[in-house]
UniProtKB/TrEMBL annotation, chain A:
Gene Ontology MF, one: structural constituent of ribosome
Keyword Hydrolase: no
Descriptive protein name: Small ribosomal subunit protein mS29
Name of a matching Pfam family: DAP3
Subcellular location: Mitochondrion
Encoding gene, per UniProt annotation: jg10966
Top-rank taxon, per record: Eukaryota
PANTHER family, per the entry: MITOCHONDRIAL 28S RIBOSOMAL PROTEIN S29, SMALL RIBOSOMAL SUBUNIT PROTEIN MS29
GO BP annotations, alphabetical order: apoptotic process
UniProtKB/TrEMBL annotation, chain B:
Protein's GO biological process: translation
Protein name: Small ribosomal subunit protein uS9m
Keyword terms: Mitochondrion, Ribonucleoprotein, Ribosomal protein, Transit peptide
Ribonucleoprotein as UniProt keyword: yes
Biased composition (Basic residues): 384-407
Residue segments, region Disordered: 383-407
Highest taxon listed in the record's lineage: Eukaryota
Species of the source: Pararge aegeria aegeria
Record flagged with keyword Manganese: no
GO cellular component: mitochondrial inner membrane; mitochondrial small ribosomal subunit
Entry's localization field: Mitochondrion
GO molecular function, a single term: RNA binding
InterPro entries documented for this protein: Ribosomal_Su5_D2-typ_SF, Ribosomal_uS9, Ribsml_uS5_D2-typ_fold_subgr
Family according to the record: Belongs to the universal ribosomal protein uS9 family.
Length: 371, 407
């Protein structure tokens, strides 16, 4: 038993140099680390992604490997360098990550989130827009909006998101620098005073689920104001953003009327925050084929996925393509799997896997799972 | 009037054409086999002329007193057969003339080729087996020639092994044993001269096997039992094992059948070269199921695979992708060649199968002989001719039967 452990350990450390980097902070990573894996701190991972943000299959694999290791890839580094070089006083720059299915858009976004956290951004992150608009469990809580006529609230999802927001930004919210600019009256008895900390507003949304959607609306407005007044810098990350522009959602009102995304009260605030009429912020969006139904999956380019409307809404933006693995990234990943004893067998296996998976990261992961 | 005559002609011709077609197919199949009689039985007569010549003799012969009973019976049978053949020949000639008239051609110059063409035109048949389709052939082709008498008019057999019952088979054993003896003597002589046998001229038997029992039976025109066949193999093996067996190469080869000759090795196309000096081989007609396409292989390359303008992601599933890369992996050429495939029709499995065959077929030009044989053994060079089987009425699928229920 002991000897086996030693053997495994020695094997791990003999290969460790080739695919791992000890540079765990995305702010410090540079070109030298491309294709190498860095391990995220477990507590941090829990804080950032406990309510989603990492793809399910990846979470499962991370659990098996007992560590969350992300690969440092070129697009993520590019965006980080761009953000570092940006003058935040100018209007917010929008980056759109796009690419084929399974090339790692969400994981790149996770990497960027990590960077944003390290760099002290206030994070506004939607793990997966389709979770709100397209996923309909048996009992999806829906109600008509009180404040805005003709709109539909999804209060539970909104409250869950507020929780996610609170979790991700607990450090910044605790510091108490962020104050509300004006008084908000929710009902006769409930109101939030001007000058109250932002955390109170969030807490109100979580405890009074009925008002969660309205709270989000207000929260986004406040965040924009705070950013403009240089109280904080904001990092907006939305995964599957193109879902907001697909003509229909899968939601139905109680009268069985089909709901368009504009009629969902959560759409408006996030449309608002993705405009570039504010400063001191960074916006990173992904467009994903998987966020829309199969009839809109012919192409992975953002113009096709966003429709004319979304494209005009986002114009101008910086498109960032997430490609498949390069030769080096592939070998690094294969070495990582071998290190985790996830991949075994003769060394010729890699060349075959490379051809079969066509260097697609997700395909490679799926192919290795039963090996 | 004309119509009437025409219909008579057709009636007549059908009468003559169809009956033959009705019962010829089994005979025709046996024909090849029975032809061997002429080739290997020592006293068989083969050609029709021979039969006719001897027939004229038999009438005078039968008048002689000193004729054995067996000979008498044989002569009677032969006479009967001869008359039958004459009749058939007559009918064949008439049928041929009618066909020529129907086709509006000159009956005098109407050849057998024209007859076949006319029949195909006048009696189109959808029957699958060509042997079962209507035909009009010269009777000597349809009815095999008989074995001629194996004994003279006094009833004395020609063949010295006639009374063994299987003269051809025992003649074969006899010859083999004699050859062995001769070889032994030769060997003794060589040893006395103190010369070592030259290893270069030894017999190469790797590419062939002994005839099977059925084949040997066909060849000898005699039924054999297992023991006799074993004896045959034993004797032949003994002959072959001798160091100077190559001296009887012809005799041995006669009883061996070569393994499937590697035809593909001979027909490997030479690659053409483009302006960059790349070798290019294009395989057209890559078929599998409903998929049709062509595959081009470029060497040297970098392992780029292009299918209908896309890369390997043209196939979404793993299985067809594996199909496509299998020949490349097998030959170890995955980084050495580029593959460009155009494929259409069918589904992913058929398309990938077609591409796989196309790649393997094209790679023949770039691999050495041993790899070629390995590819052959791996089944890469074999066309898969299986097609979708039709659904049958009364059952839910091609083979699937309805669920059996007692009541």
């Amino acid at each position: 038993m002991l000897s086996r452990n030693i053997r495994f350990l020695s094997r791990r450390y003999s290969q460790a140099l080739t695919f791992r980097t000890s540079e765990a902070s995305p702010t410090q990573q540079n070109e030298n680390q491309i294709g190498l894996f860095y391990t995220m701190n477990n507590d941090l991972c829990k804080q950032l992604f406990s309510h989603g943000g990492l793809p399910k299959s990846f979470t499962k694999q991370a659990k098996t490997f007992t560590e969350t290791a992300l690969m440092v890839r070129h697009p993520a580094l590019d965006v980080i360098n761009c953000i570092k070089a940006t003058d935040l006083n100018k209007p917010a720059v929008r980056y759109v990550l796009y690419g084929e299915k399974g090339t790692g858009k969400s994981l790149t976004l996770a990497h960027l989130l990590h960077f944003a956290y390290e760099d002290g951004f206030l994070i506004v992150h939607i793990p997966w827009v389709s979770e709100w608009l397209r996923r309909v469990p048996r009992h999806k809580e829906m109600s008509n909006s009180q404040s805005r006529e003709g709109l539909v609230d999804i209060p539970l999802d909104a409250a869950a998101w507020l929780l996610h927001f609170k979790m991700q930004n607990q450090v910044l919210l605790k510091s108490g620098d962020l104050k509300i600019s004006q008084e908000y009256v929710w009902s006769k008895r409930e109101k939030t005073d001007a000058g109250a900390p932002l955390a109170e507003l969030v807490e109100h949304g979580i405890t009074r689920v009925k008002y969660a959607c309205d709270v989000i609306d207000v929260l986004i407005k406040e965040i924009k104001l705070l950013s403009n007044s240089k109280k904080c810098k904001t990092f907006v990350a939305i995964d599957g953003f193109n879902s907001f522009f697909y003509p229909l959602t899968r939601l139905r009102t109680t009268t069985k009327k089909k709901v368009t995304p504009e009629e969902v009260s959560l759409t408006a605030p996030f449309m608002n925050i993705t405009k570039n009429d504010w400063s001191n912020g960074v916006i990173v969006l992904t467009t994903d084929q998987l966020a829309v139904p199969a009839d809109r999956q012919e192409n992975y380019l953002p113009k096709y996925l966003l429709y004319q409307k979304g494209f005009e809404h986002l114009d101008p933006f910086v498109p960032v393509e997430i490609g498949r693995y390069t030769e080096r990234e592939f070998m690094s990943c294969a070495n990582y799997y071998r290190d985790r004893l996830w991949l075994r067998g003769p060394p010729e296996l890699e060349s075959e896997l490379k051809l079969t998976s066509a260097c697609n990261p997700y395909d490679f992961m799926e192919l290795c799972a039963p090996l | 009037m004309y119509n009437n005559r025409m219909s008579m002609v057709i009636k007549f011709s059908i009468k003559h054409v169809l009956p033959i077609s009705g019962f010829t197919s089994p005979i025709a199949r046996n024909f090849v086999r029975l032809q061997n009689v002429c080739m290997y039985s020592s006293k068989a007569t083969s050609s029709k002329n021979n039969v006719n010549n001897s027939f004229t003799d038999w009438e005078t012969l039968s008048k002689k007193k000193k004729v054995s009973k067996a000979m008498k019976a044989y002569l009677e049978r032969a006479k009967e057969h001869d008359e039958f053949m004459k009749r058939q020949q007559f009918e064949y000639n008439i049928g041929k003339r009618h066909l020529a008239n129907m086709m509006g051609e000159d009956p005098e110059t109407f050849t057998q080729k024209d007859v076949d063409r006319a029949i195909e035109y006048l009696f189109p048949s959808g029957i699958y087996d060509p042997a079962a389709r209507p035909l009009l052939k010269p009777p000597e082709e349809v009815f095999p020639a008989r074995k001629a008498a194996e004994f003279d008019e006094a009833g004395r057999p020609h063949h010295f092994l006639f009374y063994t019952g299987k003269p051809n088979f025992f003649k074969l054993l006899y010859d083999a044993a004699e050859n062995i003896q001769v070889l032994h003597q030769y060997q003794d002589k060589v040893i006395r001269r103190k010369v070592t046998p030259d290893p270069n001229v030894s017999l190469d038997l790797n590419a062939s096997v002994w005839l099977t029992k059925d084949q040997l039976e066909q060849m000898l025109v005699e039924g054999l039992n297992d023991l006799e066949y074993d004896n045959f193999k034993l004797v032949m093996e003994r002959l072959v094992s001798l160091p100077y067996s190559y001296r009887y190469k012809e005799f041995i080869e006669k009883y061996r059948k070569s393994l499937s000759t590697q035809k593909f090795a001979l027909e490997i196309p030479k690659p053409s070269y483009d302006e960059n000096g790349c070798a290019i081989v294009t395989t057209y007609e890559c078929l599998r199921k409903k998929a049709r396409g062509d595959v081009t292989i470029k060497s040297p390359g970098t392992g780029k695979i292009t299918i209908n303008g896309q890369d390997l992601t043209y196939f979404e599933d793993t299985q067809p992708r594996e199909q496509v890369i299998f020949p490349l992996i097998f030959t170890g050429m995955q980084d050495k060649v580029d593959v460009i495939a155009n494929i259409e029709g069918g589904g992913p499995s058929g398309q990938s199968g077609a591409i796989r065959w196309g790649i393997a077929w094209g790679l023949r030009s770039f691999v050495d002989k041993s790899m070629l044989e390995a590819m052959q053994v791996a089944g890469l060079l074999t066309r898969d001719h299986r097609r979708r089987e039709r659904k049958k009425p009364g059952q839910p699928g091609a083979r699937k039967k309805p669920t059996w229920k007692k009541r």
